[in-house]
Amino acid sequence: MRRSNLFTEIAEFCQGLSGLKALSLFLLVTISAYIYTLYCGYIWDDERHVLMDSSLWGLGGLWKIWFSREMQQYYPLIYSSFWIEANLWGLSPAMSHIINAFIHALNAFLLYSVLKHLNIRGALLAGLIFALHPVHVESVAWISERKNVLSGLFYLLSLYTFLKCEDKPGKGLYFLSLALFILALLCKTVACTLPAAFLIIRWMRGRNIGVGYIASLIPFFALGLAFGLLTVWWEANLVGASGHMWEMSYIERVLLAGRIFWFYIYKLILPFDLIFIYPRWQVDLSAIWQWLFPAGAVLAAALLFALSNRIGRRPAAALAFFLVTLFPALGFIDVYPFQFSFVADHFQYMASAGPISLFAGTAAWAAGRGSFSEKALLAAALLLAALWALSFSQTFAYKDSDTVWKDTIAKNPEAWIAHTNLAVPHINDDHDFAIAHLEKAYGLNSSNETISHALGLALFKKSRELSAKGMETEALEYNSRAIALYEDALALEPRYVEAHINLGVSLAQADDYDSALEHFHKALRMNPSKAFVRKNIERTLKLKAMTHPLELKMREGR
User: Domain map of the chain by residue range?
Assistant: First the structure.
């Protein structure tokens, strides 16, 4: 009897949830799952996105954030949020993490609110699954991915406001939705798919899509297209998403898109073995099995649309929302991370709301058209508990940079970027460790100038260590290898300033002063602000004078 009463009370509590109570539940559940991130530090891109140049922390920094091309990406609202944090309480990874988790909780609550507004069954379950699903850990636990969660916040606010405007037309709500959409775009351009989501939801609700409705979406589509084109240009020209790593035919991209689609569906269903950097697939037009991915996606979409009159439009709408929202990450547009992997958990942050909502709605229908039973509640509780545990354990991988890269290598040993980034911070304090991982990275990707340069630097540091121990022969060998690797880096990128400088240092170490001076001068021409290069030039000239005093006198006589 007590057990029955308990389930009845839980059911009544869930059915009566609204407003502040619902928000409190989402905050409690989400923050508890991400509590360990309070002990996590900065990782990878945080150095560029969060730990920006100290000159950006003044008022002039805001100008650079909004109106210059100095930033890694044009997401000014994200950089502004970090600017505000830095000026309020200084750089604090704990505060940044708790803010990310708080925003994610708001997003889960907003998804619940949108689904409830649309009278979709299982809205509460969908919101809680969204809050606790492990594929979202990357977006929340990685501080730089605030662009994902904050963009998602404004995206969902814009969507909710637009739906309210549809039910109760008014210019105020319309322009508020448009303003929120712009804020979402200023956080991350992936929000550009929102107007397409409007159309999908309108079709799902069986409402008329007339000329007037289409006209109301034109400003949304125009802004989305403008920001999208800006991001494509920024990625190709400033971020570096161009070159042989991105060269694929259109047909190859179709194959890739199909595989990406099913990969994300798979990870939503079975969120195990999540990796910060997944293996990079080889697209092969001659492999019949790779054609099954796009064929299967097309077949699934066609089947759901064909059955929409019998099973309703919601399954087809959920799939359409997933595909449209995921489109920027399906491989048709080149983005910088594609050189490492074609997939990443954070790419499906907002898109996952479609399949999650479909699953929750179907589960609620199967449980008795929205009524609560003990078995249904128990199943939901067990599912949420499992998701909570998986997400909580996944946050431990984000403790610090070393932990992230070690976890990645353990699951994906071929991730050259993981070997590189694990090694670089240890070049000065653990030469052998750095060399071992950089040699692995170089073996996996010898056409990357950063790896060649980093390995060269590690070998040079090792040569200095050996020289200090009096092991000159071994030191000379390591330095010679460093010179060859610097030259490899410059063959790949002739304007690599640091490679010119370090090659100059190694050449001077090998008593090739003329060549060393040549590279120092090249570096100085490319970047005159590097004052220490002038000191290297002066030091090299002194060493040369000591080695060749007669030559120096002859030049002075001239």
Answer: 2-51+91-401, 402-557
Block residue for tokens 């969204």: 130
d(C-alpha 292, C-alpha 86), whole Å: 49
Phi-psi category of 281—alpha, beta or left, where left has phi over 0 and alpha has psi -120 to 50? Answer: beta
Amino acid occupying residue 419: H
Q: Say if CB 232 and CB 333 are below 8 A apart.
A: yes
**How many Cβ atoms from other residues are within 10 Å of residue 221's Cβ?**
16
Burial 32-70 (b: 16+ CB within 10 A, else e): ebbebbeebbbbbbbeebbebeeebbeeebbebbeeeee
Q: Are 78 and 52 in contact (CB under 8 A)?
A: no
What fold, for 402-557? 1.25.40
As a whole number, the mean pLDDT across the chain is 89
Crossing angle (nearest 10°) for helices 93-117 and 146-167: 20
Whole-number Å distance between alpha carbons of 431 and 434: 5
What is the distance between the alpha carbons of residues 382 and 132, in angstroms, rounded to a whole number?
A: 12
Task: Give the Å distances, CA to CA, from 306 to 311, 393, 521.
Answer: 10, 41, 68
What whole-number distance in Å separates Cα of residue 233 and Cα of residue 228? Answer: 9
Cβ–Cβ < 8 Å for 33, 131: yes
Question: 146 near 81, Cβ under 8 Å?
Answer: yes
Beta-carbon contacts of 518 under 8 Å, excluding residues fewer than 6 positions away, are: 504
Q: Which of 334, 339, 193, 192 is nearest to 250 (CA)?
A: 334
Cα gap 159→298, rounded to integer Å: 27
Copy the structure tokens of residue 534: 């002038």
Beta-strand ranges (E) seen in 458-497 are none
Helix (H, G, I), strand (E, B) or coil at 445: coil
pLDDT band at 553 (very low <50, low <70, confident <90, very high): very low
Residue 461 has pLDDT above 70, yes or no: yes
231 near 189, Cβ under 8 Å?
yes
Question: 476-507: string of b/e by CB count within 10 Å (b at 16+)?
Answer: eebbebbbebbbbbbebeeebbbbbbbbbbbb
Q: Quote the tokens at residue 57.
A: 């922390």
Task: Using the structure block, give the residue that is written with the tokens 């479909």.
Answer: 358
Q: What's residue 113's pLDDT?
A: 95
Given this model, what pLDDT does residue 216 score? 94
Q: Is 113 in a helix, a strand, or coil?
A: helix
Tokens of 452: 């060649």
Tell which wins on pLDDT, 58 or 102: 102
Q: How much of the chain exceeds pLDDT 70, in percent?
A: 92
Residues 6+ apart with CB under 8 A from 230: 74, 189
Token pair belonging to 94: 């704990």
